[in-house]
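Team,

Forwarding the record for the chain on the shared tracking sheet. I've put the sequence and predicted structure together so nobody has to dig through attachments.
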Amino acid sequence: MTRRMTRTAGFTLIEMMVTIALMCVLMMLAMPSFTTWIANNKVRTVSDSLQNGWRFAQAGALPRSRPMVFSPPNSAAPEKSLSAVDNGGNWSVNVSKSSLDTQNVFVQSGVLGDVASGVSITGPAAVCFNAMGRLAANPDTGVNGANCDPKSSVFVYKVNATNSDRPLQVLVGLGGQVRMCDPARTLANSPDGCP
């Protein structure tokens, strides 16, 4: 009697080991691009949050007919204690102290640092908008550390992260135009370039 050898369906141990080794090599090759992609998304998220905060401050000045101040505090609860600092981890919008208001009034705040850890933000401690939604000088905003002095025609916040290959800038012009741009491109060559 001859015995027929039948082979059961499945993978051998060597085939499994080769497949796992190939998958590991492919994942190691893809890891740097995933890291860069995640860092670029963090930069974009923080830039969007800054841009939204500026637009909220600008848009809030018009219906209230009051000057508004945008400031980046480090406090997670700026409605209770607000001190504006350069490169803060949050943002806060307040009605600025004026002849009509004896003190500043908290309006809204947003988060920058918790949204994207590892992102660095450089920019001024405060940006003020007048009742018409344009940049304005305001030495006494009622917010600690928030002295608005538009020395140039543009305020710039630079946003970058480690492992990111695409830093972004958020800028507001003297007329109140808020936009995000890529500093690696020029405005003459690309619509999302920086001036």
